[in-house]
Design goal:
Helix content: 10-25%
Oligomer: single chain
CATH class of the largest domain: Mainly Beta
Order of helices and strands: EEEEEEEEEEEEEEEHEHHEE
Number of domains: 4
Shape: elongated
Distance between the termini: 76 Å
Structural class: mainly beta
Length: 277
C-alpha cells in the first residue's frame, strides 16, 4: 500500500519519458510517478528506491527522493513562507509548500515566523500542518530533574499552565503555580526540569532554585521600586495574588528577596509600604 506522507521503499515497475513508475511490488496495480528530474542515474526496472509520497500542485500523488523536514505524525519547527486566504504556507523542504489551515493555527502567524508543527492528513486526504501539537509530541526526552532546557510555548491554559515543546519535539508543562510574569503563546523560554513524570512528560520551572533565584529577585524588587519612586505601596504581608501580579513572583519568593535586602540595609519596611534607602 502506498503511504502518503511517509518515506517508503518501492520497486521500479515501468520507465517512461517523463520519469519512472513505482509500486510496492512489480505486480501491484497502484503506482506512483517519480518525475524524470528526480530519477537517479542508472536505475532500472526491478530496482528498489526510497521515496517520500505527497501531492503536487495539481493534487496528484507524486514521489520524490528529496527528504522533507517532517513526516506524518512527526513534529518539527518550520518557517512560514507566506500567508493566504486559506491559511499559511510553510517551507518543509519540498517544491510545494505545506499548508497550515487557519483552523489549525493557535495564534496569528506571519511570513518569517518559525514554530513547531505536526503533519497530518485532513478529511480530504491532503497533507497539512497543525500548531495543535500536544498529542504529537514525544515523551522520550533525554532530560532529567534539574536539567536546563529550551522550548516553545505553543498553548497556555488558565487551568494547567503553559504547554511547551522542548527542543520543538518533547512534551512539557510549566504548571500554573510556576507561571510568574508575562508568558505568551509563541514565546521561546529557557527553563529548569523540576520533574520527569511517569509517562515521560516534563514539568518545568522558569525560575532557578530558591537559593540561586534570591539574588535575581532582590534585584528585580529594587528595579520595580525605582520605577515607583523608590517605594512599594505594600509589604511582604500583602495578598499573594497582589504580589504575583505586581512583582511576578510568589509570596515566599518575595519575602525571601525583601528579607535579604533588609539585612543588607537597602530597604526599610513600614506598616504599609517598603522604601528604598
Amino acid at each position: 500500500m502506498l503511504e502518503l506522507g511517509r518515506t517508503q521503499e518501492l520497486t521500479v515497475v515501468k520507465k517512461v519519458d517523463f520519469g519512472i513508475y513505482l509500486a510496492e511490488t512489480k505486480d501491484d496495480e497502484e503506482k506512483v510517478l517519480l518525475p524524470k528530474k528526480q530519477v537517479p542515474e542508472g536505475i532500472g526496472t526491478g530496482d528498489r528506491i526510497s521515496v517520500f509520497l505527497y501531492r503536487d500542485s495539481k493534487d496528484r500523488l507524486i514521489a520524490t527522493t528529496t527528504a522533507p523536514l517532517l513526516q506524518l505524525g512527526q513534529v518539527e519547527e518550520l518557517t512560514v513562507v507566506q500567508t493566504g486566504k486559506i491559511g499559511a504556507f510553510l517551507d518543509w523542504g519540498l517544491e510545494k509548500d505545506l499548508l497550515l489551515p487557519f483552523r489549525e493555527q493557535t495564534r496569528e502567524v506571519q511570513a518569517g515566523d518559525r514554530f513547531p508543527v505536526a503533519l497530518y492528513l485532513d478529511k480530504s486526504g491532503r497533507l497539512c500542518a497543525t500548531m495543535k501539537i500536544y498529542h504529537y509530541l514525544r515523551t522520550d526526552s533525554p532530560y532529567q530533574k534539574d536539567d536546563r532546557v529550551e522550548g516553545y510555548v505553543y498553548e497556555i491554559s488558565r487551568q494547567f499552565g503553559a504547554f511547551v515543546a522542548v527542543d520543538g519535539k518533547y512534551s512539557a508543562l510549566v504548571p500554573v503555580q510556576e507561571l510568574f510574569g508575562q508568558v505568551h503563546t509563541g514565546d521561546r523560554v529557557k527553563a529548569r526540569v523540576t520533574k520527569v513524570l511517569d509517562d515521560g512528560k516534563l514539568n518545568l520551572s522558569l525560575r532557578e532554585k530558591a537559593y540561586l533565584q534570591i539574588g535575581t529577585d532582590a534585584k528585580k524588587v529594587l528595579e520595580i521600586m525605582e520605577q515607583n519612586g523608590g517605594k512599594l505601596p505594600f509589604t511582604d504581608k500583602a495578598d499573594p495574588d497582589l504580589i504575583r501580579s505586581r512583582m511576578g513572583m510568589s509570596k515566599n519568593e518575595f519575602k525571601r528577596a525583601v528579607g535579604g535586602l533588609l539585612k543588607e540595609g537597602k530597604i526599610q519596611i513600614t506598616e504599609n509600604e517598603i522604601r528604598k534607602l
